[in-house]
């Protein structure tokens, strides 16, 4: 059975989650939620204020199968009472017995709700928020209760220090998954606050002294979760420290315990190490320290709309980010291309530069008035049926005057031969996962060459969704299959298509991410990558970025002033995310057409509808800008002085 997993926490509905297969090493913790401890030095992590703000306006709904769950709860409460001696006829005062019993009830309730998150409906906006609010509320009550009765719980329940790390970790996971569901990046800061406190206060320090491998696994899972949050917040210096600590913990774990998951944990370590090294560029300050650059949308980071520009009022509401590239760097079922596109569709987290003085809280003036990021589904190697299901759900729930974006980073599927009548299913497409589509336990195979590839998303498969505004990005070796689109319903439709082949000198870099997606994620980094530059000073980087801002402003004016450009581009131009993607795409087109290594037509990006060449991608002004940037970086010898005549 396939479900939605993130290192053990499974969720069946989200607007920004990872679709993946469970892994033995890191995904088996659903059945374990230890007792919450009472340690007092986590008072600074004031869960109450932060959580209560999340639960405001959340209507509490009864969980399905409640009677069965309550019977299980009563059974577990009885076992807990037996273990602690509360049920025995001894000298324990009645009020202290009641305290432990009430604590067990809240503890069990929190476990039920946390585990119940995976049982939520797969789609829809209604029920998950109420259930999340209910879960946050129970954790708030549990936290306040253990603070008020810590002495009794210490004496009668025997709580340990590592257990408080567990409750902080669970709250961090709740915030992380709330971010996944809402795409509100400020909740990443909340998750970071709790994960960071666990490490700073060494709550898991004593775990290694106990002869219990399951406790060590909890610690390893905590490290893996913390690393993912740090990656998303671009805290790369801390990521490198955490990777080193995780490596030491895994080595100690494998030496002490002869477990079956040793190879899987080593694979986790290898994946995160490769993920950290995937960036093709190091930016150095005057002291040769590495400067970390954020690639999320920042204030003033996109050319503004100017008076007289006639553009549409559409808003990007939903995005499907699909990754199915073989041998591409990944971590936590997130390929490097998916990771980059995810950040390209988000604004900078609130208060990222200066963390709140009180960890674990979200001050009222920090919380945005509205959610400004599009909802996102992150689908790692989905089958066709899974991908189509999420497409249908997004299409159904898309608000009025909104856009659905589909990003496909996948291996190309090519047609067997040329048909007599070429249609939307005769050009191939991109690969979907073949490992999960089975009939009677066996793989389904094509019967003859005349049949189409069933494990492929053909351009025709997307035709039904063109009834609403649709923005498609295809990064694949067969991306050009999607230029054979037909706009049947007259709604705005744009396809940005990657090159289908790269120069041989750049093909070995594909494992570290696609050059095309890199341009859409960080155009200057893409420019430096095609120039073979792997490091540069921050001062020069800043000057180059200033020049790019001018270039992007000019590209924006060219798009909005063109009399021959397809109106779909203007309809999408009103949204900041889509505007920036289109501008970066034009910059990528002009750069690659001028680069001497890119000589073949298949090495250039394409689009549907086609962009006007003379007015845009071959514009003399843009060529001048590209050559000016090359001269600034002292790589002008890599570029032609004029545009190629034929491509």
State the gist of this model:
With 647 residues, the chain is of the alpha/beta class. 44% of the residues lie in helices and 11% in strands. Strands 2-1-3-9-6-10-16-17-19 form a 9-stranded mixed β-sheet, with helices on both faces. Strands 5-4-18 form a 3-stranded mixed β-sheet.
Report the C-alpha radius of gyration, rounded: 27 Å
What overall form do the CA principal axes indicate?
globular
* Secondary structure: number of strands: 19
**Mean pLDDT, rounded to whole units?**
80
Approximate helicity band: 40-55%
Question: Number of helix segments?
Answer: 20
The CA-CA distance between the termini, in Å, is 48 Å
Strand order of the largest sheet: 2-1-3-9-6-10-16-17-19
Percent in strands: 5-15%
Low-confidence stretches: 1-67, 352-369, 436-447
**SS class:** alpha/beta
**Major sheet summary line:** 9 strands, mixed
Coiled coil: 236-263
Biased composition (Basic and acidic residues): 364-373
Protein name: Suppressor of cancer cell invasion
Region (Disordered): 352-373
Please describe the topology of this protein.
Layout: E1 3-6, E2 9-10, E3 18-20, H1 47-55, H2 66-84, H3 94-116, H4 127-148, H5 150-157, H6 161-182, H7 186-200, H8 213-232, H9 236-256, H10 262-276, E4 282-284, E5 290-291, E6 315-324, E7 330-331, E8 334-335, H11 336-344, E9 375-380, H12 384-397, E10 402-410, E11 412-413, E12 429-431, E13 438-439, E14 442-443, E15 456-457, E16 470-475, E17 493-497, H13 504-507, H14 515-521, H15 523-530, E18 535-537, H16 538-561, H17 567-573, H18 576-594, E19 606-608, H19 613-617, H20 620-632
Parallel strand pairs: 3-9, 4-18, 6-9, 6-10, 10-16, 16-17
Antiparallel strand pairs: 1-2, 1-3, 4-5, 7-8, 11-12, 12-15, 13-14, 17-19
Biased composition (Basic and acidic residues): 364-373
Pfam families: SCAI
Coiled coil: 236-263
């Amino acid at each position: 059975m396939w479900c939605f997993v993130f290192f053990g926490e499974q969720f069946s509905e989200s607007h920004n989650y990872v679709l993946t297969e469970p892994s033995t090493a890191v995904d088996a913790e659903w059945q374990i939620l230890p007792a919450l401890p009472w340690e007092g030095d986590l008072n600074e992590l004031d869960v109450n204020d932060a959580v209560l703000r999340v639960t405001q306006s959340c209507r509490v709904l009864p969980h399905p199968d409640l009677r069965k769950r309550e019977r299980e709860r009563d059974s577990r409460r009885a076992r807990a009472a037996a273990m602690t001696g509360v049920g025995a006829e001894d000298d324990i005062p009645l009020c202290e017995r009641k305290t432990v019993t009430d604590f067990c009830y809240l503890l069990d309730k929190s476990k039920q709700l946390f585990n119940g998150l995976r049982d939520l409906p797969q789609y829809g906006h209604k029920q998950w928020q109420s259930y999340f609010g209910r879960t946050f509320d129970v954790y708030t009550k549990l936290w306040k209760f253990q603070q008020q009765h810590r002495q009794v719980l210490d004496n009668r329940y025997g709580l340990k220090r590592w257990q408080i790390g567990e409750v902080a970790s669970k709250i961090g996971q709740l915030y992380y998954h709330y971010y996944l569901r809402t795409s509100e990046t400020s909740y990443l800061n909340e998750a970071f606050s709790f994960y960071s406190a666990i490490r700073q206060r060494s709550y898991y320090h004593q775990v290694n002294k106990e002869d219990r491998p399951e406790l060590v696994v909890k610690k390893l899972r905590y490290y893996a979760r913390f690393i993912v949050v740090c990656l998303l917040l671009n805290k790369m210096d801390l990521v490198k420290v955490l990777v080193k600590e995780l490596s030491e913990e895994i080595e100690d774990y494998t030496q002490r315990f002869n477990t079956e998951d040793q190879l899987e944990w080593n694979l986790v370590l290898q994946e995160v190490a490769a993920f950290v090294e995937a960036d093709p560029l190091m930016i150095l300050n005057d002291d040769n320290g590495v400067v970390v650059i954020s690639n999320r949308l920042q204030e003033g980071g996109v050319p503004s709309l100017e008076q007289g520009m006639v553009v549409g009022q559409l808003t990007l509401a939903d995005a499907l980010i699909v990754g199915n590239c073989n041998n591409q760097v990944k971590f936590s079922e997130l390929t490097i291309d998916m990771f980059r596109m995810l950040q390209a569709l988000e604004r900078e987290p609130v208060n990222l530069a200066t963390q709140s003085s009180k960890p674990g809280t979200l001050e009222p003036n920090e919380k945005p008035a509205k959610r400004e990021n599009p909802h996102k589904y992150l689908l790692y190697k989905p089958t066709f049926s899974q991908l189509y299901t999420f497409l249908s759900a997004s299409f159904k729930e898309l608000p009025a005057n909104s856009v659905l974006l589909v990003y496909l980073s996948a291996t190309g599927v090519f047609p067997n031969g040329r048909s007599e009548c070429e249609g939307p299913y005769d050009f191939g497409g991109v690969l979907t996962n073949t490992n999960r589509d089975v009939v009677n336990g066996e793989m389904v195979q094509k019967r003859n060459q005349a049949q189409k590839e069933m494990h492929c998303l053909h351009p025709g498969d997307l035709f039904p969704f063109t009834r609403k505004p649709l923005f498609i990005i295809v990064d694949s070796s067969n991306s050009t299959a999607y230029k054979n689109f037909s706009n049947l319903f007259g709604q705005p439709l744009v396809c940005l298509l990657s090159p289908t082949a790269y120069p041989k000198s750049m093909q070995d870099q594909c494992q570290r991410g696609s050059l095309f997606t890199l341009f859409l994620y960080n155009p200057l980094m893409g420019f430096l990558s095609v120039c073979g530059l792997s490091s540069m000073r921050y001062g020069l980087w800043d000057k180059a970025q200033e020049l790019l801002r001018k270039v992007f402003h000019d590209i924006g004016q060219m798009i909005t002033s063109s009399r021959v450009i397809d109106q779909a581009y203007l309809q999408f131009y009103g949204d900041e995310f889509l505007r920036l993607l289109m501008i970066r795409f034009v910059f990528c087109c002009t750069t690659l057409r001028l680069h001497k290594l890119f000589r073949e037509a298949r090495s250039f990006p394409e689009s549907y509808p086609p962009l006007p060449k003379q007015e845009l991608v071959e514009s003399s002004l843009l060529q001048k800008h590209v050559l000016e940037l090359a001269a600034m970086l002292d790589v002008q010898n890599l570029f032609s002085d004029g545009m190629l005549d034929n491509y």
